[in-house]
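ok trying again, last paste got cut off:
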Amino acid sequence: MRDLYRELRRRLTPAQSAALDALLEAAATAGLPLYLVGGSVRDLILDRPGLDVDLVLEGPAIQLAEAFAARTGATVRRHAAFGTATVWGPGFRFDLATARRETYRRPGALPTVQPAALADDLARRDFTINAMALGLTPAERGRLVDPFHGLADLEARLVRVLHPDSFRDDATRMLRAVRYAGRLGFRLEPETL
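nice, full thing came through this time. structure:
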């Protein structure tokens, strides 16, 4: 397996790298693990251009974003209902989310979220190729968390839905499945199709 952490650091601009260092320091101070997640991990593995930095914290993401902003002068946009924040400053923009579990009161409704472990956060995602995480804080640094075999599906060039109720929970995932297949040159896994 490639050293994905080193590849991530190589692909970041100096401003992104400095901001990530400050964010990692804030997470370490709080004793909370921080992960690169979802499409960011997928695109890092595929070496796709224009890498977004989407992060999940096993802890209060908004609080970490505010501590980071206080240290760096970054701007924070909070999304309290979802436990997420966007932080940005000169030359960087990161999305930071509390690891969470989601439930849907009815198909197509906005989810109700509650804090959870990383495993729960990955299980709520749409496709196996988007349900991976890369550890960033020292104890987990460089470890690929891949409970649904997303790496194998990347290698097989497959888009596989994560669970049977996924399209019922959020019908826009059908459109995203087709978009990923087209954009990445993948095919839809037969049960997903």
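cool. Residues 22 and 68 are 7 Å apart (CA to CA). DSSP finds eight helices and eleven strands in the chain.
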